């Protein structure tokens, strides 16, 4: 008798040896991996310079033919598991250059994950590391070393090209800023970042208002993103389609297509606040004024909604998110939300068009095909209200009366991109009922529109769950009979807790179940 786990076949006798290897590896990890912490605070302001083998990046013309391919793939119940690298994988050496932390411990961690049946590793490729010091000065050496280590461990790669910063979301462990030369421009012109109505800027991501404005050493933001993608593909061409199976393109804060309406870590917002609209940099305001003039209502272009509360407001008592003549249902409300969400969709369309074009040549050879991925946020609080205010401020014009995710997914469909969906571990029953949350409702909506628009799904968890209940919920959502089976699942993230006995004993069976054809 034999079982298939993670691409290997083990007899029952071999399984006993396999479990012994896992136990030895786990003991090493508990002694040595605490796990791979990161840069000292402010590090990046200091000085230094397969599964996708048959997948294609699909053009609009190929969409109808793709439907049968996607539906057929759903018969294959195997869901490969990727595990995302720790946020603190890099540190500084004595000379001030970055290096991989605890290389031996990381190597053993990768071996343990491979033995457990994990298919691949997710790696964020940071703009703020590679093009850190000056324009066009790309240094890929760190990722060359890391990718080789992962490849030598027999694991595949999900690469997330990250054009954002995680300084505010790393809980005081340091983090990765935007490139230093971008920060220098931002010190002079803070309008290259998103701004709220009080004028506070957020330097986690460039405002989409500069997508077409050549403010960045003579380049537009879109040109910077395109040049970075081209450099990446040229450097790692031999890995694409063989080791690198999925490439996610950063589209906003945390890599997600959204506005930074709920800034985490800087004290302005806390759950379950509705957030604030982020359109007050001068470039977006100029665009709003032009849109209002085209609408024949120039007065609508002076500012965003003035009755929409603040970051930590609750929907009740906030006029814009209730029913009334000055609400989101008014002519002005519809105009503003169409513009606000529409600009975000245009942003995604422009970047994904460039990414699909760059990767198109690899489709001439099935051995080098790769899955293009776009990540969306999981704004699940206040989902059961009429207005869905937290989604509106994030840029998703999704209400009880309007499907705001359909136009987003339509753009992904046009460029053959998969949708990276969150919340697969979450249950409505585990959320505070007062805040009218529904991660399950949000997930169901995304699954439905993805099926309608013939878009592949990639899953991920939003919160860390290593208990049996949470892992089982992930599995059931990956195999939802009412939706397409997800193409892969990315677990966030590798850390010390995953290797603890009680968690490891849950995680390994979960991976084996997901990695086995049913």
From TrEMBL:
One GO biological process term is: polysaccharide catabolic process
The record, for Pfam families, names: Glyco_hydro_14 (PF01373)
Q: Which SUPFAM superfamilies match?
A: (Trans)glycosidases (SSF51445)
Catalyses: Hydrolysis of (1->4)-alpha-D-glucosidic linkages in polysaccharides so as to remove successive maltose units from the non-reducing ends of the chains
Class in the EC hierarchy, top level: hydrolase
- Domain of life, per UniProt, equals Eukaryota
PANTHER family linked: BETA-AMYLASE 1, CHLOROPLASTIC, INACTIVE BETA-AMYLASE 4, CHLOROPLASTIC
Describe the family membership recorded for this protein in Swiss-Prot or TrEMBL: Belongs to the glycosyl hydrolase 14 family.
This chain belongs to the protein called: Beta-amylase
Q: Please name the source species.
A: Gossypium hirsutum
């Amino acid at each position: 008798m034999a079982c298939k786990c993670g691409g290997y076949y083990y007899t029952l006798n071999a399984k006993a040896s396999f479990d012994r290897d896992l136990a030895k590896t786990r003991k090493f990890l508990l002694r040595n991996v605490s796990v791979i912490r990161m840069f000292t605070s402010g590090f990046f302001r200091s000085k230094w310079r397969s599964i996708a083998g048959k997948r294609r990046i699909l053009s609009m013309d190929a969409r109808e033919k793709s439907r049968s391919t996607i539906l057929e793939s759903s018969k294959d119940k195997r869901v490969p598991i990727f595990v995302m690298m720790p946020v603190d994988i890099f540190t500084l050496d004595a000379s001030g250059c970055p290096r991989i932390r605890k290389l031996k411990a990381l190597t053993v961690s990768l071996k343990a994950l491979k033995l457990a049946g994990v298919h691949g590793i997710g790696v964020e490729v940071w703009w703020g590391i590679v093009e850190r010091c000056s324009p066009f000065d790309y240094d890929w050496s760190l990722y060359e070393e890391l990718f080789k280590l992962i490849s030598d461990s027999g694991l595949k790669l999900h690469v997330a090209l990250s054009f954002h910063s995680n300084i505010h979301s790393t809980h005081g462990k340091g983090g990765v800023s935007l490139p230093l030369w971008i920060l220098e421009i931002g010190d002079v012109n803070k309008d290259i970042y998103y701004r709220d109505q009080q004028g506070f800027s957020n330097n986690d991501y460039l405002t989409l208002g500069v997508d077409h404005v050549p403010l960045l050493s003579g380049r537009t933001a879109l040109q910077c993103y395109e040049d970075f993608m081209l450099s990446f593909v040229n450097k790692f061409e031999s890995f694409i389609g063989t080791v690198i199976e999925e490439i996610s393109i950063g589209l906003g804060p945390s890599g997600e297509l959204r506005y930074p309406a709920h800034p985490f870590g800087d004290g302005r917002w806390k759950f379950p606040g509705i957030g604030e609209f982020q359109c007050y940099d001068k470039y977006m305001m100029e665009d709003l004024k032009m849109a209002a003039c085209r609408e024949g209502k120039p007065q609508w272009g002076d500012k965003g909604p003035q009755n929409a509360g603040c970051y930590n407001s609750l929907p009740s008592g906030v006029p814009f998110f209730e029913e009334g003549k000055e609400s989101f249902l008014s002519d002005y409300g519809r105009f503003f939300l169409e513009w606000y969400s529409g600009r975000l969709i245009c942003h995604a369309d422009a970047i994904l068009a460039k990414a699909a074009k760059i990767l198109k040549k690899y489709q001439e050879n099935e051995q080098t095909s790769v899955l293009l991925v776009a990540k969306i946020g999981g704004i699940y609080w206040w989902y059961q209200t009429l207005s869905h205010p937290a989604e509106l401020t994030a840029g998703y014009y999704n209400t009880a009366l309007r499907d705001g995710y359909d136009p987003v997914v339509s753009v992904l469909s046009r460029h053959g991109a998969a949708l990276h969906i969150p919340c697969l571990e979450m249950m409505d029953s585990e959320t505070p009922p007062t805040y009218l949350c529904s991660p399950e409702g949000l997930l169901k909506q995304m699954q439905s529109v993805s099926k309608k628009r013939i878009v592949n799904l990639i899953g991920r968890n939003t919160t860390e769950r290593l208990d049996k209940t949470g892992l089982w919920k992930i599995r059931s959502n990956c195999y939802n009979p009412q939706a397409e089976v997800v193409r892969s699942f990315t677990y966030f993230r590798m850390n010390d807790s995953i290797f603890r006995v009680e968690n490891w004993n849950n995680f390994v069976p979960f991976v084996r179940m997901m990695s086995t054809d049913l």
